[in-house]
């Protein structure tokens, strides 16, 4: 029986390099990789060696025989990917190798941020012999959205932080927590001590909902609500009003489904997670019985991924609801449509997530706080464009969460593309948009480089590309020199931790004697 990729796949491609028969696709060198919702094992080629299991940072791959009832659907999802024969080489692609010139001094790089993009960039840089990496994080906890974004009940996805911990603990990496670049240390200051600076600061803001009433109390962005339940210090005060029986989420990407699931599932099921204790208490007292998830387009254009929908369908105590009429135009064989057509019947006492398609919010209504949302039904015109039908409805609710996209903020004096919310760059080199001239020694990676798209693992290739550009510049001798003597860090966090562990092991050993 073959091995199967399941819901928690974060798309980092590690399994591809581990597989001896190249039967996990798409591989990172395939243009389809960046858009893939997950990777897939070809059941006809898999020889059950299990090598991919140990390579996977989030335990997403299982032998067919160990799938849970809810996971069995992934057998078909993996196999379906190969229904159309695909050309692929017998061997997996070779991993890129950096070729680095010896310049008589160690390369020294500062990375701003400690999310996935930062840690993958650090991992790649640390393959350079002797390279020293300083990671600066404004919060007092590392790993960005892995801790502040990923839903607390996505336990396996959160295990990716174990991989990040291994990178953090490298002897040549020093992690500086609670240091905000721009406030506590300047860009020029970093460039005095480092040959290059990589900004991996993510996309800390949201696209705004621009309709009347959107500024009313009771309207929260996904950044606020997710930050609140994940204990992000910027959002501890953003408690939602959970006193009404209905909440509405605008947008239907994976983050929207995360929010709907956290608001509706049994709080006891979140008790053993890393959810903020105050949020768990508020959810225990919540009166929300139904979350309506609204999208302007139809099921075929749903922004959530298939694996996320599989997980949502299997959430105990939560009934998913989609009216038959909304599925009527979806062709049989459409994977998301088929899953939505075969939803399990609700059980008594279930809370409800109502997925509603082809509805455009037009106004938030309320006296001093949110009372309702007005929406207009939409339709897809003959040219594929979205058109209003003029048919409106009012949905009463006490909480409205907007989940319509994240947005990067300007970074110090670096150029900024306000339309896309990114720092203009060429393969990770920060460039002046008017002249295309690179800003010496300054690079970007992750969401601030390419915009808020993809999964945790998508940032790996993105950061590797940036590091490749940086190394090309190092080899070409265009990076400045550092003005302070380069010394190995006296004791990085990782070194201190290992020293503590060695001391403890010594004590334990001494105790046994
Ligand atoms: C709500 C949510 C849920 C998600 N769930 C999943 C999931 O289940 N699976 C999945 O694969 N992907 C998920 N993603 C996507 C994934 O989290 C992103 O792809 C990834 O985190 C982007 O990485 P990044 O390093 O660019 O940004 P971030 O993870 O945002 O990291 C940026 C870091 O930079 C720090 N920083 C910012 N400014 C400064 C400064 N001036 N000085 C110092 N530090 C600074 C921030 O504090 C932060 O730690 C989710 C995203 C969101 C928003
Ligand atoms: S079990 Fe072995 S052959 Fe099968 S997908 Fe994993 S690595 Fe490849
Ligand atoms: S998370 Fe990475 S290693 Fe695991 S299945 Fe997905 S791509 Fe493969």
TrEMBL record:
InterPro entries named in the record: 4Fe4S_Fe-S-bd (IPR017896), 4Fe4S_Fe_S_CS (IPR017900), FAD/NAD-bd_sf (IPR036188), FAD/NAD-binding_dom (IPR023753), Ferredox_Rdtase (IPR055275)
PROSITE patterns, sorted: 4FE4S_FER_1, 4FE4S_FER_2
A GO MF annotation of the entry reads:
oxidoreductase activity
What is its cofactor?
A: FAD
Query: Where does the record place the 4Fe-4S ferredoxin-type domain?
Result: 1-29, 37-66
Q: Write the record's keywords in alphabetical order, separated by commas.
A: FAD, Flavoprotein, NADP, Oxidoreductase
Keyword Lipoprotein recorded: no
Entry-linked PANTHER family:
GLUTAMATE SYNTHASE 1 [NADH], CHLOROPLASTIC-LIKE
Q: What is this protein called?
A: Unannotated protein
Native source species: freshwater metagenome
